[in-house]
UniProtKB/TrEMBL annotation:
GN (gene name): Tesc
Organism the protein comes from: Crypturellus undulatus
Protein name listed in UniProt: Calcineurin B homologous protein 3
InterPro entries (UniProt xref): CHP3 (IPR052490), EF-hand-dom_pair (IPR011992), EF_Hand_1_Ca_BS (IPR018247), EF_hand_dom (IPR002048)
Molecular function (Gene Ontology), one example: calcium ion binding
SMART domains cross-referenced by the UniProt entry: EFh
Length: 194
C-alpha cells in the first residue's frame, strides 16, 4: 500500500543516513541483525542481483530505494484476497530468495559445502554443539534432500547438490508464507557511534 511504501521510504532514509543509496555497512546499525548468526547472508541477499531481478550476475555495491522495495517485496505478508495462483507465486518468490541465500557462489546449485556453511553459521551460537556436530547435521540434511529429490541412489551415484526445483520440493508443505518476515523495519531510533 502507499502507507507501507511511505514507511519503507522513511526506514530506507534512516538506514542510509538520508543518502540516495544503501551500502552493506548501513546494515551494521540494525540491532535486530547484530546477533543473527546468518547476518552476513541476510545482508548479502539485499545486494544479490538475482534478488534485485537484474540480469547481470554478482553483488551490487549499493542499492537505491527501488532496489530496497524489490527485496522487501519478498517479505510482504499474504493478503486475504489472494487467489491460489497469487499465493503460489508469492511462495515461490520467498523460496527463491532463500535459495539465493544458500547458493553463495550463484551457480544455481546448493552444494554440500554451501549447505554446511549455512548450517554451521546457524548453529554457531550454540556453545553445546561442536563444529563436527554441525557438519553431521548438514550432511544428514543433504542426504535427506538427495533421497527426497533424486530418489534411491546407487553406491556409485553422487548427489551434486540442490537445484531450485529440488529446493521447492524440500519446502513443500512448510508454511513459509507466514514465517518469512523482517523485524528491523520498525522505526525505533538507531544508535549511531561517532
Amino acid at each position: 500500500t502507499a502507507d507501507q511504501i511511505e514507511q519503507l521510504h522513511r526506514r530506507f532514509k534512516q538506514l542510509s543516513n538520508e543518502k540516495p543509496t544503501l551500502r552493506k555497512e548501513h546494515f551494521d546499525s540494525i540491532p535486530d541483525l547484530e546477533f543473527n548468526p546468518i547476518r552476513s547472508k541476510i545482508v548479502q541477499a539485499f545486494f544479490d542481483r538475482r534478488n534485485l531481478r537484474q540480469e547481470e550476475p554478482g553483488l551490487a555495491d549499493e542499492i537505491n530505494f527501488e532496489d530496497f522495495l524489490t527485496v522487501m517485496s519478498y517479505f510482504r505478508p499474504i493478503e486475504p484476497d489472494m487467489d491460489e495462483e497469487q499465493l503460489e507465486r508469492v511462495r515461490k518468490d520467498k523460496i527463491k530468495f532463500l535459495f539465493h541465500m544458500y547458493d553463495s557462489d550463484r551457480d544455481g546449485l546448493i552444494t554440500l559445502d554451501e549447505y554446511r556453511n549455512v548450517v554451521e553459521e546457524l548453529l554457531s551460537g550454540n556453545p553445546h554443539l561442536e563444529k563436527g556436530a554441525a557438519r553431521s547435521i548438514a550432511d544428514g540434511a543433504m542426504l535427506e534432500a538427495a533421497q527426497t529429490c533424486a530418489g534411491p541412489m546407487g553406491p556409485n551415484q553422487v548427489y551434486e547438490g540442490i537445484t531450485f526445483e529440488d529446493f521447492l520440493k524440500i519446502w513443500r508443505g512448510i508454511d513459509i508464507e507466514t514465517k518469512m518476515h523482517v523485524r528491523f523495519l520498525n522505526m525505533e531510533p538507531i544508535a549511531h557511534c561517532c
